[in-house]
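=== RUN LOG ===
request id: a7f3
mode: sequence -> structure
chains: 1
length: 251
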Amino acid sequence: MADLKISQLTASTTPLAGTEVLPIVQSSTTKQVSVANLTAGRAVSALSATLSSLTSGRIPYATTSGLLTDSANLQFSGSNLLLGTASQLQSSVLSVLGSGNVGDFRTTSSGGYPVICENTAAGSTSMVIFLSGPSTTTVGSITYNGAVTVYGTTSDARLKENIADASSSLDFVNTLKVRSFDWIKSQKHQDFGFIAQELYEVSPDCVYKPQDEDSTWQIDTSVLIPALVKSIQEQQTMIDALKTRLDAANL
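=== RESULT ===
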């Protein structure tokens, strides 16, 4: 039997065989479509479909006005994908990149908020969690501690070894080139800042150097905070020693 389009198939209780024919069973009483053996890349369009025979990751499409899933909290509104709400993301478009960074999610918006993270739990709450590896180890998070938003990165003592007091950082801090500059796109002036390429020469841990030459370099200045704290501690030790000598001289 030659392959046919689904629209050309007559009602039947026996799945039809064929190389590219999607096996279906149509009930004359409920007008539902039961999907079996649905392979990757196949989709079913119907007023309703049973999900019991679908494997994980398969999405059946319903009418053009909505997405049929086992939860009403995932649906389309025009070109907008709504997650857990009927309105919060209507000013945004959520898409999965099909090439390049496969699996990445991108949001765009011409107004309002591109992304909204809401946790209605009382007190300290997690907003975003970053996981790494098959063991899903937490490597960072964005949380609300009941008063302020905290951007956390991994710093657990159980993940470190050879822990010792850091050496002097005054010389290191003095090598940092603090610049003033104007941003080309916004034409806004910034009084104090770093140049990623310059910072990379003295502190590569602070800098993300992209492999793609067309991508922009990025920095994380929080990596410099321990060195700055160490410098302040060293300077305070010097100040205390000088004060002691001055007090002794006045005696």
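=== NOTES ===
The chain is about 15% helix and 25% strand.
The radius of gyration is 30 Å.
=== END ===
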